[in-house]
């Protein structure tokens, strides 16, 4: 239980750290990429508005001189600088209205020939997109008044290279940071769950010690009741009630001690290969009489020859708890089904019973909690303590198995134990 709690703490804390890092690093990288696209599109817009060249005001300004309001330019960014016209590497390809290449300008770039420029332009036109990236070139397709097209390419290799370098570095640093955070969380988790562990250990020790202490006075009360029964007669109402309640309290005490030992890992299982099909038949026979009395339809489907390595007594107890619980809480005239089957090397025990009234998923989730009662009045009438299913879960987990409870429709509940 505490091991699972610690694992859950580690996973929750690490997942939270991972999400924070992912949002921060992802947000910064997305922002950088959007910035690259935005700057590229601003440059392309200037070129598009001026027929594929930079305006004269940018090419012929004197140092320290720049028009106060350059067309299509944003203030306060690098795009404002007159140097942008000399820093930008671009080329253009012009098409006529019939789709023929009528002009190629590669004067502002040395890495692209006219043939390469034409090939790239043909590709982007055939893609059907007006703007985008092809390799490290950002492009825009501008429609001309005469029906032709002007394809403008801007080399963004330097900006994209910077973006990729930052992205790769941020990913590596984030992974290293997450590894460090994971180690810190692992060591902190031990201290975080220690108070819970100590409280749990004290609780289990108290239950175990108190259980053993209660056994002695219970034995004395039962013995005294037997003596009084011999003197006053066995049909005495008060003595019969004392005996009945003593037996119930003794049963509860034994269950608590068993559960406490199993949760502490003190119970040594007597493991052997067991034909649990025979056990299932025995358990089924034990509930036939109560089913007949309460007019409950009992359906049994037990596969023969199912054998697993287990503690025979504990598995018999598990089966008894599940089937007794189903019969106990099935309304009169309802139906209980009981099945045992093999699934590979595993055995599957499944018990289904009708419910007198509906049950929500939140209630089902707590059914295996110690002393939990979905219906306290009904539980009291049936003589239950709300601990049987806790014992069933402990037995299943001691055998490295899994037990679940699920609703089937509105008025049925299914318990499944996989061993």
**Rg over alpha carbons:** 39 Å
Distance between the termini: 19 Å
The number of domains: 2
Tally of individual helices: 11
Percentage of residues assigned to helices: 55-70%
Low-confidence stretches: 70-76, 376-383
Morphology call: elongated
What number is the mean pLDDT?
A: 81
Using the coordinates shown, work out and report the CATH topology of the largest domain.
Answer: Profilin-like
What does the main sheet amount to?
5 strands, antiparallel
Number of E-type strands = 12
Strand order, main sheet: write it out. Answer: 2-1-5-4-3
Class based on secondary structure composition and strand pairing? alpha+beta
> In percent terms, what proportion of residues is strand?
15-25%
What does this 3D model show about the protein?
- It is a single chain.
- With 419 residues, the chain is of the alpha+beta class.
- It has 2 domains: 2-163, Profilin-like (3-Layer(aba) Sandwich); 271-418, Heat Shock Protein 90, CATH 3.30.565.10.
- The protein has 11 helices and 12 strands.
- It has helices at residues 2-49, 56-59, 84-87, 114-127, 157-232, 237-264, 276-293, 312-329, 361-365, 376-382, 388-398, and strands spanning 90-95, 101-105, 131-134, 137-143, 149-155, 271-275, 297-302, 307-311, 335-343, 346-354, 402-407, 412-418.
- The strands form 3 sheets. The chain has a 5-stranded antiparallel beta sheet, with helices on both faces. It has a 5-stranded mixed beta sheet with strand order 7-9-10-12-11.
- β3 (131-134) and β4 (137-143) form a beta hairpin.
- α5 (157-232) packs antiparallel against α6 (237-264) and α7 runs parallel beside α8 (312-329).
- The longest helix is centred in the middle third of the chain and has 76 residues, at 157-232.
- The two termini are 19 Å apart.
């Amino acid at each position: 239980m505490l091991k699972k709690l610690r694992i859950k703490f580690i996973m929750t804390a690490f997942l939270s750290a991972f999400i924070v890092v992912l949002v921060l690093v992802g947000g910064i990288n997305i922002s950088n990429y959007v910035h690259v696209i935005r700057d590229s599109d601003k440059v392309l817009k200037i070129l598009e508005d001026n027929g594929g060249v930079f305006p004269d005001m940018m090419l012929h300004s004197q140092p320290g001189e720049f028009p106060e309001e350059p067309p299509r330019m944003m203030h306060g960014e690098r795009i404002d600088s007159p140097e942008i016209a000399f820093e930008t590497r671009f080329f253009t390809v012009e098409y006529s209205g019939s789709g023929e290449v009528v002009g190629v300008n590669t004067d502002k770039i040395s890495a692209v020939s006219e043939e390469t420029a034409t090939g790239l332009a043909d590709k982007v036109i055939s893609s059907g997109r007006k703007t985008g990236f092809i390799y490290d070139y950002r492009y825009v397709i501008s429609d001309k008044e005469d029906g032709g097209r002007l394809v403008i390419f801007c080399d963004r290799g330097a900006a994209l290279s910077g973006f990729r370098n930052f992205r790769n570095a941020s990913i590596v640093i984030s992974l290293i940071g997450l590894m460090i955070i994971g180690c810190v969380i692992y060591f902190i988790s031990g201290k975080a769950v220690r108070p819970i562990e100590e409280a749990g250990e004290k609780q289990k020790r108290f239950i175990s010690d108190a259980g053993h202490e209660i056994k002695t006075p219970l034995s004395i009360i039962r013995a005294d009741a037997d003596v009084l029964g011999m003197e006053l007669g066995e049909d005495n109402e008060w003595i019969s009630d004392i005996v009945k309640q003593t037996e119930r309290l003794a049963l509860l005490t034994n269950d608590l001690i068993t559960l406490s030992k199993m949760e502490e890992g003190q119970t040594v299982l007597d493991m052997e290969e067991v034909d649990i099909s025979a056990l299932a038949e025995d358990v089924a026979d034990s509930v036939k009489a109560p089913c007949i009395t309460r007019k409950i339809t009992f359906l049994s489907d037990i596969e023969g020859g199912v054998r697993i390595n287990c503690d025979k007594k504990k598995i018999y107890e598990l089966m008894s708890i599940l089937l007794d619980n189903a019969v106990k809480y099935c309304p009169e005239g309802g139906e209980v089904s009981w099945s045992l089957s093999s699934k590979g090397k595993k055995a599957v025990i499944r018990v289904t019973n009708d419910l007198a009234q509906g049950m929500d998923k939140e209630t089902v989730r707590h059914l295996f909690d110690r002393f939990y009662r979905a219906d306290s009045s009904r539980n009291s009438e049936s003589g239950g303590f709300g601990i049987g299913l806790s014992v069933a879960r402990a037995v299943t987990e001691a055998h490295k198995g899994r037990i679940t409870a699920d609703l089937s429709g509105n008025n049925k509940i299914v318990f499944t134990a996989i061993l």
